Amino acid sequence: MALQSISRDALFTKRVLASLRYVTLLLLLSLLMVPSVTADDPHVKAAPQKSGTEVTLMGVYFRDPNLGWAVGSSGTILKTTDGGQKWKKQTSGTPAQLTGVLFVDDKRGWVIGANGTIRHTADGGATWKAQTVDTVVPIYGISFVSAQEGWVVGGNGTILHTTDGGAHWADQSSSTTAALYAVQFLTPQRGTAVGAVGTVLATEDGGTTWVAQETQGSVTLFDVYFSDPMTGWVVGNAGAMFQTTDGGSRWIDRTLPCSRTCTRLTDLLRIRFTDPKTGWIVGERGMAYHTADSGFTWEEQGTLASVSLFGLSFPNTLHGWASGEKGTIVHLKIGK
């Protein structure tokens, strides 16, 4: 009887150990399947705001966490003075689709859009006046380095430059017919423009000459953002992303792979950095991505909305806004 008791005890012990090993294995597997989250990942609260419109809002710009504008189809211009709790429509004076908006202070700003549309305000948007340009191509991108000097880019390789706040716009030769969708100048001399068929153009003389840079890709590039003169990013369709750390002499392919939850690669439409390490991307189907290590890794943040997002603006490190289809405006409140 004693031997039988020992045998039963040994068998029971073996079964318990086997069960513990199985449970341990399951726990390890479950840990591996959980997406990694680092201490640097912010807590993001995405709050939809009521825009009062159903049109596609292609651009959004905030001067500070209270004062902002959003623009879109049918000449729509919206303004908020309370961080988006209330959005009020402004009279744009045009039925054109508006693709972008930029302000250099609380009063002076520009909107751009289809049919060569450039309109300017000197009173915070209470009134908007047309600025004359010698083109009817759509204007997609805008960048100003002061209240007087700026650039816009658009269809057929169009680049226009002003030194008097837009009273006069002069054509600059891009040597391309590709549509240009975005432009950024960090100084009056140094700028970058991007567009269709992998086009990246750079200038170091204020646009007197534009030089093509090689990305080794033919994807459509929708946006460009430099966090400093040497470090920049361009993003585009099908997850396309390229990074430079030498001012654009060499672009490194950082294209985002398809995650476990996606069925096809996401078009990346806007990229912004709030400091040298912290960056954000929004794109089609409301997808968003975040980096806390200068873009060496990007964490998928899920969907901010059920529609594609075309506009993105961060007035500081704690608040951001995205805009898109069906009048969508999303407020991003960021905290640790």
Labels describing this entry:
single chain, 336 residues, mainly beta, Methylamine Dehydrogenase, Chain H, 4-stranded antiparallel sheet, 1 helix, 10% helix, globular
Architecture overview:
The chain has 336 residues and is mostly beta strands. The protein has 2 domains: 1-34; 40-335, YVTN repeat-like/Quinoprotein amine dehydrogenase (Methylamine Dehydrogenase, Chain H), CATH 2.130.10.10. The protein has 1 helix and 28 strands. The strands form 7 sheets. Strands 1-28-27-26 form a 4-stranded antiparallel beta sheet, with no helix packed on it. It has a 4-stranded antiparallel beta sheet with strand order 2-3-4-5, with no helix packed on it. Strand 22 and strand 23 (279-283) form a beta hairpin.
Task: Give a brief outline of the structure.
This protein is mainly beta and 336 residues long.
End-to-end separation in angstroms reads: 64 Å
Cα-atom radius of gyration: 25 Å
Describe the strand arrangement of the main beta sheet, using strand numbers: 1-28-27-26
Shape: globular
**How many distinct folded domains?**
2
Order of helices and strands: HEEEEEEEEEEEEEEEEEEEEEEEEEEEE
The CATH topology of the largest domain: Methylamine Dehydrogenase, Chain H
